[in-house]
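TASK: fixed-backbone design
INPUT:
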């Protein structure tokens, strides 16, 4: 069982998707990242001085977790997700 979460600076912000399939979790994570990138661009387009986060900065907030030993644990590294900045997961 794989769970995609959106993390924040102080913990979990949102539970995004639950699936039994590793490939689906990877695909859905990318969809959530793309959606957040579009949301940020739309939200800040009228403020040219605002620095919009890069795609990688946004991606660092999305984690894939797997059910192991009666709890969810981060498996981003194991499934090949590149993380530049470790968030509270």
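OUTPUT:
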């Amino acid at each position: 069982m794989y769970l995609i979460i959106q993390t924040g600076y102080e913990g979990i912000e949102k539970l995004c998707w639950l699936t039994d399939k590793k490939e689906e979790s990877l695909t859905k994570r990318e969809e959530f990242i793309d959606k957040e990138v579009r949301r940020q661009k739309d939200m800040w387009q009228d403020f040219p001085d605002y620095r919009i986060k890069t795609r990688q900065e946004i991606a660092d907030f999305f984690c894939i977790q797997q059910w192991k030993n009666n709890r969810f644990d981060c498996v981003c590294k194991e499934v090949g997700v590149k993380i530049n900045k470790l968030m509270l997961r």
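COMMENT: The radius of gyration is 14 Å.
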